[in-house]
């Protein structure tokens, strides 16, 4: 078959690209080696935030204030886009606006919180700086200092994924599950990708949206693979001690994060490490499970919780703290979308929007921020 754009990967990044390109009227094909959304999207805990694991003041130090603030504004805009799009999909994605509490894990981390607040406040993000007394008054636990961030969110990423793909399919996007790519022929004019069941797809342009599995197609020196761990608790009857059911995370690295769910459970995740061996990763799950439950109990000792579900999973990150898009010299007409980091779903939305303009208009003013792939 032939098409304008082939999207390899039907998870979060691929689904969001398919949505934007279907709205632009392009002839699009999506292929995924699994069922739709059953890669890393299925393990996404979906705290929808515009701040990332590399703090804003650190991004300022690395990229300069203008670029760091622009990236953060684009993430804030991406959350608005996720909210707006989710309301239009036939499959409800359970998007809810939630505020966030980002606290200093150690006394020396108060300087990090203050530096973060300086830039957020300077550029008019909706954020407050809370003292130790204010934290205790609202939440009942002691922390040295924290940021209170308005209008983050949460979502069911799997349902959002399927809602996007369904909507794109209704607008003409062809979608093929269980279709593994095992060969390619690339020229300056077109790209031909071959499937293991001996079909070929000829496209003018290709978006590589296979999550961290993009690295199976092309190694990227700025990327790194991490392991993360998560538990989902039993349903909780009373969240009165959890002010506004906000998202919670911390300055420690690796950090702990928590959020509640639509069916009144708690997702507790984090304790990331650099393990890239699945057997090694999975051997740590039981210890990490107990540690995550214990961390939640420190903050909310009155909640009677236990881990009903728990897992370890891989996810991609970058060394410099920003996601990536771009072309490699040996992959002409192919755009690699690597929404790597703890805000992958938000990054995917921002990068998919940029790629839509690249493919339909030939340019986007913010492309250079993320076009940092090693060319060779």
UniProtKB/TrEMBL annotation:
Domain spans labelled FAD dependent oxidoreductase: 4-357
Domain of life of the organism encoding this protein: Bacteria
Matching Pfam families: DAO
Cellular component, GO annotation: cytoplasm
Protein known as: FAD-dependent oxidoreductase
């Amino acid at each position: 078959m032939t098409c304008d754009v082939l999207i390899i990967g039907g998870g979060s990044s691929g689904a969001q690209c398919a949505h934007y390109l279907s709205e632009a009227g392009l002839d699009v094909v999506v292929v995924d080696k699994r069922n739709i959304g059953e890669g890393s999207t299925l393990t996404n805990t979906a705290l929808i935030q515009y701040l990332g694991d590399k703090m804003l003041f650190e991004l300022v130090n690395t990229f300069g204030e203008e670029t760091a603030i622009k990236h953060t504004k684009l993430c804030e805009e991406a959350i608005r886009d996720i909210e707006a799009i989710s309301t239009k999909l036939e499959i409800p994605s359970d998007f809810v606006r939630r505020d966030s509490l980002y606290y200093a894990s150690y006394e020396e981390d108060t300087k990090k919180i203050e530096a973060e607040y300086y830039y957020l406040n300077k550029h008019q993000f909706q954020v407050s700086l809370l003292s130790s007394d204010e934290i205790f008054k609202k939440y009942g636990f002691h922390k040295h200092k924290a940021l209170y961030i308005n209008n983050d969110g949460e979502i069911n990423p799997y349902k959002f994924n399927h809602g996007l793909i369904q909507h794109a399919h209704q607008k003409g996007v062809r979608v093929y599950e269980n279709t593994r790519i095992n060969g390619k022929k690339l020229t300056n004019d077109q790209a031909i990708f071959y499937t293991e069941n001996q079909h070929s797809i000829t496209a003018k342009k290709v978006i590589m949206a296979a999550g961290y599995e993009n690295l199976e197609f092309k190694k990227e020196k700025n990327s790194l693979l991490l392991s993360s761990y998560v538990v989902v608790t039993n349903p909780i009857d009373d969240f009165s001690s959890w002010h506004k059911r906000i998202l919670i995370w911390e300055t420690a690295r690796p950090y702990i994060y928590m959020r509640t769910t639509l069916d009144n459970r708690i997702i507790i995740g984090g304790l990331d490490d650099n393990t890239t061996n699945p057997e090694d990763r999975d051997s740590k799950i039981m210890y990490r499970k107990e540690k995550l439950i214990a961390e939640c109990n420190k903050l909310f000792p009155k909640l009677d919780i236990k881990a009903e579900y728990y897992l370890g999973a891989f996810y991609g990150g970058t060394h410099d703290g920003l996601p990536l898009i771009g072309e490699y010299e040996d992959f002409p007409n192919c755009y690699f979308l690597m929404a790597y980091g703890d805000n992958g779903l938000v990054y995917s939305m921002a990068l998919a929007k940029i790629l839509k303009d690249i493919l339909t208009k030939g340019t986007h003013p913010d492309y250079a921020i993320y076009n940092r792939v090693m060319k060779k």
